[in-house]
Write a structure and sequence with these properties.
single chain, alpha/beta, two-stranded parallel sheet
Length: about 260
């Protein structure tokens, strides 16, 4: 697992070409599609004129606990079948679901953080989309590009020598997916989206640069979700413009915001 490669920063006016509404303290009122920003943690832009903000590792436990009811738990590898981490959906005696995020307690700290973020990505997608997940129609090329960027060991090795290497020029550097780690069927889609959410949390500017349609899909699924929108929301470049090829400058930020959904 790797960090997203650094991309050139988008200016604030590129994300809000028609201006943005904010409260007296400068906190943005709405995401780029006009949904209310009400969560305690905003990934991406949260302040008028401010930069994109990542989700810090110190926030992983609070976010995990708010979504699942428990913090990220370090366990022995045998408890998660020698996986680096697992997001588990189990059922208690009363039939109600119990969610857990588990990571290998023996991992180095930086690796453990990446694994925890990936598993939080699973929890976010499950809460937003349940068994169907976040829709991926039209996103596969972006999702696979992100997964390859963050997981291809050959690409990571080449980038240590030449950070500007372009994986599109080499099949070995561009075709690494969940299948290489043994995932099959619907598991592949879940892995692709969890890594995209991890990328969004780690570097919002990266995801909006290389996968704007995917970033928009994540915002659409999360930002208006009655449960997630009180915990974490995402914000960055405009989704409709990115998905439909519309000039972003032609899309105004609405002055009347839709009502906040009840919890």
């Amino acid at each position: 697992m790797n960090n997203p490669p650094v991309k050139s920063l988008h200016p604030f006016t590129a994300d809000y070409p028609s201006g943005a509404l904010a409260d007296a303290a400068g906190r943005l009122d709405a995401d780029v599609e006009g949904r209310p920003l009400v969560a305690g943690r905003i990934v991406g832009r949260s302040a008028l004129g401010g930069a994109d903000e990542a989700l810090a590792p110190a926030e992983f436990d609070p976010v995990a606990k708010a979504i699942t009811g428990d913090s990220v738990v370090g366990v022995a590898p045998r408890e998660i079948e020698k996986n680096a981490g697992r997001f588990l959906v189990q059922f208690g005696p009363d039939g109600r679901p119990v969610y857990r995020i588990l990571v290998d307690k023996n991992l180095p700290a930086t690796t453990k953080d990446k694994v925890a973020a990936h598993e939080i990505g699973h929890a976010v997608e499950h809460t937003a989309g349940r068994t169907e997940g976040i829709p991926q129609s039209g996103l596969k090329t972006e999702l696979r590009g992100v997964y390859n960027d963050l997981n291809n060991p050959d690409l990571a090795a080449r980038r240590r020598v030449d950070p500007t290497v372009d994986p599109r020029n080499n099949s070995i550097l561009r075709n690494y997916g969940p299948e290489q780690l043994g995932y099959r069927g619907a598991q592949v889609d879940r892995e692709l989206m969890a890594e995209a959410i991890r990328a969004y949390m780690a570097d919002p500017n990266y995801l909006k640069t290389v996968a704007p349609k995917t970033a928009a899909a994540i915002r659409a699924a999360v930002n208006a979700n009655p449960q997630l929108s009180r915990i974490i929301q995402f914000n960055t470049i405009g989704g409709l413009a990115a998905m439909n090829g519309i000039d972003a400058g032609s899309l105004p930020i609405p002055k009347e915001l839709p009502p906040i959904l009840p919890q």
